[in-house]
Amino acid sequence: VIDATSLGWGTRVKGFIACFALGCLFSVLGSCLLWVPKKGLMLFAVFYTLGNIASIGSTLFLMGPMNQLKRMFEPTRLIATVVMLLCLILTLCSAFWWHNKGLALLFCILQFFALAWYSISFIPFARDAVKKCVSVCLS
User: Fold this and answer.
1) Helical H runs in the chain?
2) Which of 15, 33, 102, 118 has CB atoms 3.0–4.6 Å from 43's, for a disulfide?
3) Could you read off the pLDDT of 96-110 as tens digits, one per residue?
4) Model pTM score
Protein backbone atom coordinates (compact mmCIF):
# COMPACT_ATOMS: atom_id res chain seq x y z
CA VAL A 1 0.00 0.00 0.00
CA ILE A 2 2.89 2.37 0.70
CA ASP A 3 3.94 2.21 -2.97
CA ALA A 4 0.38 2.40 -4.30
CA THR A 5 1.25 5.31 -6.57
CA SER A 6 3.87 3.19 -8.37
CA LEU A 7 1.38 0.41 -9.11
CA GLY A 8 -0.20 0.15 -12.53
CA TRP A 9 -3.76 1.41 -12.94
CA GLY A 10 -5.20 -2.11 -13.35
CA THR A 11 -3.46 -3.32 -10.19
CA ARG A 12 -4.65 -0.26 -8.29
CA VAL A 13 -8.26 -0.84 -9.34
CA LYS A 14 -8.03 -4.53 -8.39
CA GLY A 15 -6.58 -3.56 -5.00
CA PHE A 16 -9.36 -1.02 -4.50
CA ILE A 17 -12.08 -3.54 -5.39
CA ALA A 18 -10.58 -6.28 -3.19
CA CYS A 19 -10.12 -3.99 -0.19
CA PHE A 20 -13.56 -2.43 -0.58
CA ALA A 21 -15.22 -5.84 -0.95
CA LEU A 22 -13.40 -7.06 2.16
CA GLY A 23 -14.60 -3.97 4.01
CA CYS A 24 -18.20 -4.62 2.98
CA LEU A 25 -17.88 -8.29 3.96
CA PHE A 26 -16.49 -7.37 7.40
CA SER A 27 -19.27 -4.83 7.98
CA VAL A 28 -22.00 -7.31 7.06
CA LEU A 29 -20.34 -10.07 9.06
CA GLY A 30 -20.09 -7.74 12.05
CA SER A 31 -23.79 -6.93 11.78
CA CYS A 32 -24.63 -10.64 11.74
CA LEU A 33 -22.36 -11.34 14.71
CA LEU A 34 -24.12 -8.74 16.86
CA TRP A 35 -26.73 -11.29 17.84
CA VAL A 36 -24.23 -13.93 19.04
CA PRO A 37 -24.76 -14.45 22.80
CA LYS A 38 -22.18 -12.91 25.19
CA LYS A 39 -19.36 -12.01 22.75
CA GLY A 40 -21.60 -10.67 19.98
CA LEU A 41 -21.16 -7.02 20.87
CA MET A 42 -17.37 -7.23 20.83
CA LEU A 43 -17.33 -9.19 17.57
CA PHE A 44 -19.73 -6.72 16.02
CA ALA A 45 -17.68 -3.70 17.06
CA VAL A 46 -14.42 -5.21 15.82
CA PHE A 47 -15.71 -6.46 12.47
CA TYR A 48 -17.83 -3.38 11.72
CA THR A 49 -14.93 -1.08 12.54
CA LEU A 50 -12.48 -3.20 10.52
CA GLY A 51 -14.95 -3.06 7.64
CA ASN A 52 -15.01 0.73 7.70
CA ILE A 53 -11.22 0.93 7.98
CA ALA A 54 -10.85 -1.42 5.00
CA SER A 55 -13.35 0.63 3.01
CA ILE A 56 -11.44 3.82 3.70
CA GLY A 57 -8.17 2.00 3.04
CA SER A 58 -9.40 0.90 -0.36
CA THR A 59 -9.09 4.45 -1.63
CA LEU A 60 -5.38 4.38 -0.80
CA PHE A 61 -4.96 2.23 -3.90
CA LEU A 62 -6.58 4.84 -6.10
CA MET A 63 -4.95 7.99 -4.72
CA GLY A 64 -1.86 6.80 -2.92
CA PRO A 65 -1.39 7.00 0.84
CA MET A 66 0.04 10.50 1.18
CA ASN A 67 -2.45 12.08 -1.19
CA GLN A 68 -5.29 10.32 0.64
CA LEU A 69 -4.09 11.57 4.03
CA LYS A 70 -3.73 15.12 2.71
CA ARG A 71 -7.23 15.04 1.23
CA MET A 72 -8.75 13.52 4.39
CA PHE A 73 -7.65 16.50 6.44
CA GLU A 74 -8.58 19.26 3.98
CA PRO A 75 -10.93 21.83 5.55
CA THR A 76 -13.95 20.53 3.61
CA ARG A 77 -13.47 16.99 4.97
CA LEU A 78 -11.91 17.68 8.36
CA ILE A 79 -15.09 17.46 10.44
CA ALA A 80 -16.30 14.29 8.72
CA THR A 81 -12.85 12.70 9.10
CA VAL A 82 -12.56 13.57 12.79
CA VAL A 83 -16.12 12.40 13.55
CA MET A 84 -15.53 9.17 11.65
CA LEU A 85 -12.23 8.41 13.40
CA LEU A 86 -13.68 9.36 16.78
CA CYS A 87 -16.69 7.10 16.22
CA LEU A 88 -14.40 4.23 15.21
CA ILE A 89 -12.61 4.55 18.54
CA LEU A 90 -15.80 5.11 20.56
CA THR A 91 -17.43 2.03 19.01
CA LEU A 92 -14.60 -0.13 20.25
CA CYS A 93 -14.61 1.59 23.66
CA SER A 94 -18.35 1.05 24.08
CA ALA A 95 -17.96 -2.63 23.25
CA PHE A 96 -14.80 -3.52 25.17
CA TRP A 97 -14.77 -1.18 28.16
CA TRP A 98 -18.30 0.12 28.64
CA HIS A 99 -20.15 -3.04 27.45
CA ASN A 100 -23.00 -0.87 26.22
CA LYS A 101 -24.80 -2.28 23.18
CA GLY A 102 -26.87 0.86 22.64
CA LEU A 103 -23.83 3.13 22.50
CA ALA A 104 -22.02 0.73 20.18
CA LEU A 105 -24.97 0.81 17.79
CA LEU A 106 -25.20 4.59 18.02
CA PHE A 107 -21.51 5.01 17.24
CA CYS A 108 -21.78 2.57 14.33
CA ILE A 109 -24.66 4.59 12.90
CA LEU A 110 -22.61 7.76 13.33
CA GLN A 111 -19.66 6.00 11.68
CA PHE A 112 -21.88 5.18 8.71
CA PHE A 113 -23.15 8.74 8.29
CA ALA A 114 -19.70 10.28 8.77
CA LEU A 115 -18.21 7.89 6.21
CA ALA A 116 -21.05 8.65 3.79
CA TRP A 117 -20.60 12.41 4.29
CA TYR A 118 -16.85 12.04 3.82
CA SER A 119 -17.33 9.93 0.68
CA ILE A 120 -19.73 12.28 -1.04
CA SER A 121 -17.30 15.15 -0.49
CA PHE A 122 -15.34 13.75 -3.44
CA ILE A 123 -18.34 14.17 -5.77
CA PRO A 124 -18.77 17.78 -6.95
CA PHE A 125 -21.90 19.43 -5.52
CA ALA A 126 -23.08 16.16 -3.90
CA ARG A 127 -23.13 17.63 -0.41
CA ASP A 128 -25.20 20.59 -1.61
CA ALA A 129 -27.65 18.20 -3.27
CA VAL A 130 -27.97 16.11 -0.09
CA LYS A 131 -28.48 19.23 2.05
CA LYS A 132 -31.16 20.50 -0.30
CA CYS A 133 -32.90 17.11 -0.42
CA VAL A 134 -32.93 16.84 3.38
CA SER A 135 -34.22 20.40 3.78
CA VAL A 136 -37.02 19.74 1.28
CA CYS A 137 -37.95 16.49 3.04
CA LEU A 138 -38.00 18.17 6.45
CA SER A 139 -40.04 21.18 5.37
Assistant:
1) 9-33, 40-63, 65-72, 78-96, 101-120, 126-138
2) 33
3) 899 888 898 899 899
4) 0.80
